[in-house]
Amino acid sequence: MNVRQVIQLTWLVATLPSLVHAQAQTGPADYAVTTAVTPPAQIQWTYTRPTQATIFKNYAYDAIGPYTIAGAAFAAGIGQAGDAPPEWSQGVDGYGRRLGSNLGIAVAATTTRYALAETFKEDTLYYRCECSGIVPRLRHAMLSTLTGRRGEDGHRVFSVPALIAPYAGSMTAVYGWYPNRFGVKDAFRMGNYGMLAYVGENISLEFLYSGPHSLLSRMHLNDAHAAPDPGPNH
């Protein structure tokens, strides 16, 4: 090995640690593209109190709308199959009496709910959840069964009208046209079924598509069931 080669080798050994250190300081992180991540803007929703015209449309829908008729027909079929009450017999006449009874209960319950809501200055219309996901939306639909909105800001409150309405309907039937042997216990039992039906309706309103071109929208009084959707307030 000549002198020139020795000098070159010595220089390489001397500078190798600094080269390695420099490479460590300019690793892959220096070549990565850094992108500024901006969190999505949160939409603030505002409450719009329904007009009297909207409330009346909702009352008509709840009293004699498709959900009410379908539910009354289904319940009448169950009563017909179980011959309940037996005093109403079978056949077309028996089914007609059961169907008429269920529709009468629905009208009485709906009238009670809307009348008491007006008295309490309460909004008991259904609003779809502003959340996403099956569980939060299901919880919202069930919670809306016994809650309403009050005040200009629409804050949620426990709804006395929503609680009383199903039992007012069943009481009307028991003491209005049911056989004399029926009493308070029967009215309470029937009211529980009415409350469950109300829960089912809210779940349907939450999950069934009701866009501008859907069949449900046309059945829904042009999607007028519920107050106007809250709008974003940026």
Topology overview:
Blueprint: H1 3-25, H2 52-64, H3 66-82, H4 91-119, E1 122-123, H5 134-143, E2 147-150, E3 155-158, H6 160-176, H7 184-207, H8 215-219
Helix pairs in contact: 2-3, 2-4, 3-4, 4-6, 5-7, 6-7
Short description:
This protein has 234 residues and is mostly helical.
Structure description:
With 234 residues, the protein is mostly helical. It contains eight helices and three strands, in the order ααααβαββααα. The chain has a three-stranded antiparallel β-sheet with strand order 1-2-3. It starts with a helix and ends in a 15-residue tail after the last helix. The model is unreliable at 9-17, 26-36, 39-43 and 218-224 (pLDDT under 50).
